[in-house]
Design goal:
The protein is of the alpha/beta class. It has a single domain, classed as Rossmann fold (3-Layer(aba) Sandwich). The protein is 39% helix and 15% strand. It has 14 helices and 13 strands. Strands 4-5-13-10-11-12 form a 6-stranded mixed β-sheet, with helices on both faces. The C terminus is likely disordered.
Length: 408
C-alpha cells in the first residue's frame, strides 16, 4: 500500500515519525506527509491506475494508510470533469471545464479529506474525533465516523446551512452550535479536547485531511491524460484543496508522470471575507485576520487560514492570482451555470465562475487557455442562499404548499 516515510513541518522542516497521532509541529506549523517517491516510481505505474477502485483510493501508494482494512470509504472521488461549452461561449473561453466535487458522498469535496483522516484514525487506534466546521466538513466527518463506528464531536456556527446540521444529527454525531465563526468553534475544540479525550481534526491541525484532498490533483491529471490545464480556479476558505493539489503536482513531477508547466493556481474568495486576496495584493507572506467576515458562501467565511502561507506560496510559484467576488456575483453566476450547463453548484464554486469572467475580461486568462473551475459542493445544500435571488416567487409558490422554504 503506502510508501509514507515521515511527517515534515511545512514551516521549520522538522521531521516526525508517522506511526503515531500527530497534530501541529512544536513550532505551530502544519505537518505534511512525505513519501518515498523513488520507490513508488519503481513499483507503481500510472497505467495500472485504471485497474484500481473507482474512488480516490486508486492512488493508495501516495496516501498514508498502511492497512487496507483500516480504509473507510463511501466511494469518494472520481467526480465528473464537465466541459462547459455554453458557459465558455458566453464568457469567451474555448476550453472551459468544471470539476464537480458536489457529487462526492455528503455532497462536497470534504468527503475526500475526511475519508483519509478517519481511516488514519482507525489505523492509529483513535476513537473520538472533534472538528470545528463551517458546514460541509462536519457533514463529512459525521458520515465517515458513523461508517467507522467512531465518536464524532462537531462544532459549527449557529447560522450554518440547515442541511449540514441535519446531516450531522442524522448520522449520530454530537453537535454543538456556537454563536460565532469557525475560529470560535475551533477555540472550543482546543479548550476541551484534552479533558474530553478528543483528537482534533481541524483544518491542517492533523496531516491527513490534506492527503485526501490532494487526490483532486491526481484525478485531474488522470482525467486530462496526464497533461495539466493552464489554470485552476479554486474557492479558498481554509484553502486546503488548493494546497493539496499543488502538493499533488509536485509528487506527480517526482514520479515523472507529468512534465511541463504547472497550472496557474487562482484562489477565489468572497468580497466579505478576503484575507488571502488582501495578503496577495500587498505582497505579504501571511494573511491578517479579516474582521466582520460575512458571506452566503459558508465555506469561504474563514477570517484567517492556518495554511495561508502555503496558499500564497502556491499562488506565487504558479504565476497565479487571488480574486474576490461579491455574494450577488456568486449567486448570479451559479444561476447562469445551472441554466447554461445544468450544473447546480455551491456558491463557493459559483464564485469561481464569476472570477473566471473577471479574469477573461482583464486579460489575465486568454480565451484559448484550458481553464478548470472547481465546484466544491452541491447547490442543493445552499437553498437558503439561492432563495434570496428570487424571494417573492419562492415564498409565494411555496407558501401554498405549507411554506417549505422561508427566505432570509
Amino acid at each position: 500500500m503506502t510508501t509514507l516515510t515521515k511527517l515534515e513541518c511545512s514551516a521549520c522542516r522538522k521531521e516526525y515519525e508517522s506511526g503515531a497521532p500527530r497534530n501541529l509541529c512544536a513550532c505551530g506549523g502544519p505537518l505534511l506527509a512525505r513519501y518515498d517517491l523513488e520507490k513508488t516510481r519503481q513499483s507503481w505505474s500510472r497505467d495500472w491506475i485504471q485497474n484500481g477502485p473507482s474512488s480516490m483510493w486508486r492512488y493508495a501508494p501516495v496516501l498514508p494508510v498502511s492497512k487496507p482494512r483500516a480504509i473507510v470509504s463511501l466511494g469518494e472521488g472520481m467526480t465528473p470533469l464537465v466541459k462547459a461549452e455554453r458557459l465558455g461561449k458566453r464568457l469567451g473561453a474555448t476550453n472551459l471545464w468544471v470539476k464537480d466535487e458536489g457529487l462526492n458522498p455528503t455532497g462536497s469535496f470534504k468527503a475526500r479529506g475526511l475519508s483519509c483522516a478517519v481511516s488514519m484514525a482507525v489505523e492509529l487506534g483513535i476513537r473520538k474525533l472533534a472538528i470545528p466546521s463551517a458546514g460541509n466538513a462536519a457533514s463529512a466527518m459525521a458520515a465517515y465516523c458513523a461508517a467507522a463506528g467512531l465518536e464524532a464531536h462537531i462544532f459549527m456556527p449557529a447560522d450554518v446551512p440547515q442541511s449540514n446540521y441535519i446531516e450531522c444529527k442524522v448520522s449520530g454525531a454530537n453537535v454543538t452550535l456556537v454563536d460565532g465563526l469557525i475560529g470560535d468553534c475551533a477555540r472550543v475544540v482546543s479548550e476541551r479536547k484534552d479533558a474530553e479525550g478528543w483528537f482534533d481534526v481541524s483544518t491542517l491541525k492533523e496531516p491527513y485531511r490534506l492527503e485526501g484532498k490532494k487526490t483532486m490533483g491526481y484525478e485531474l491529471a488522470e482525467q486530462f491524460r496526464w497533461r495539466l490545464p493552464d489554470a485552476i480556479l479554486y474557492p479558498a476558505g481554509g484553502g486546503v484543496g488548493l494546497i493539496g493539489m499543488w502538493k499533488a503536482f509536485q509528487e506527480l513531477e517526482a514520479l515523472t508522470w507529468i512534465a511541463g508547466k504547472r497550472p496557474k493556481m487562482i484562489a477565489v474568495q468572497a468580497a466579505g471575507c478576503q484575507p488571502i486576496v488582501r495578503a496577495f495584493e500587498r505582497g505579504e507572506e501571511r494573511s491578517t485576520f479579516w474582521e466582520n467576515a460575512r458571506t452566503v458562501a459558508s465555506g469561504l467565511r474563514v477570517p484567517k487560514a492556518l495554511g495561508d502561507f502555503l496558499i500564497l506560496r502556491a499562488i506565487r510559484e504558479s504565476g497565479g492570482t487571488a480574486v474576490a467576488v461579491t455574494d450577488e456575483e456568486m449567486l448570479d453566476a451559479g444561476m447562469q451555470l445551472a441554466s447554461d450547463e445544468g450544473l447546480f453548484v455551491a456558491p463557493e464554486g459559483a464564485g469561481c465562475v464569476a472570477a473566471t469572467a473577471k479574469l477573461l475580461a482583464s486579460g489575465f486568462l486568454r480565451p484559448d487557455e484550458t481553464v478548470v473551475i472547481y465546484n466544491t459542493g452541491a447547490g442543493l445544500k445552499y437553498l437558503e442562499a439561492y432563495s434570496t435571488r428570487f424571494p417573492r416567487e419562492i415564498s409565494g409558490e411555496y407558501d401554498k404548499l405549507g411554506g417549505l422554504i422561508t427566505p432570509r
